[in-house]
Amino acid sequence: MDSKGTVYLTKERMLELEKQLHVMKSKGRAEMADKIAEARSHGDLSENAEYDAAKEEQGLFELRISKLEELLSRARIIEKNELPTDAVYILSDVTLEDLKNGGTVTYRLVSPEEADFELNKISVTSPIGKALLKRKIGDVINVTVPAGTLEYKILGVA
Known about the structure:
Helix Hairpins, 158 residues, Chitinase A, domain 3, alpha/beta, five-stranded mixed β-sheet, elongated, 2 domains
């Protein structure tokens, strides 16, 4: 993830992340404080491993909050209807034919923060995503991935 560039998110994903941040800052911080207070009540802090662990967990939790705040500060909402439909772009649904086995698959190209392979959402920064960007229906792409080389023909872009 580029730590200085714009992050493109769908409105739904932006709302999910904002909700997650709110919960972390309210309930999450309160739970962390309770854990530390509980550990502190167990006596001498210099020999209290539970207290040390709770403080370390709190530090990691605050780091996650900080990273989420930073990501949201760079986020820009992108709507599918704002994008051209003449080629493959972020948020395009692309139907591909695997030229090696004849199967078809449809992927949605999304930002790295929204990628979820199980939902067929692939990142525009993934090897397949990069190969698809700005390509058109009928184009054939060859993509080298860890499992070998894939060859796809673009059947549809929506």
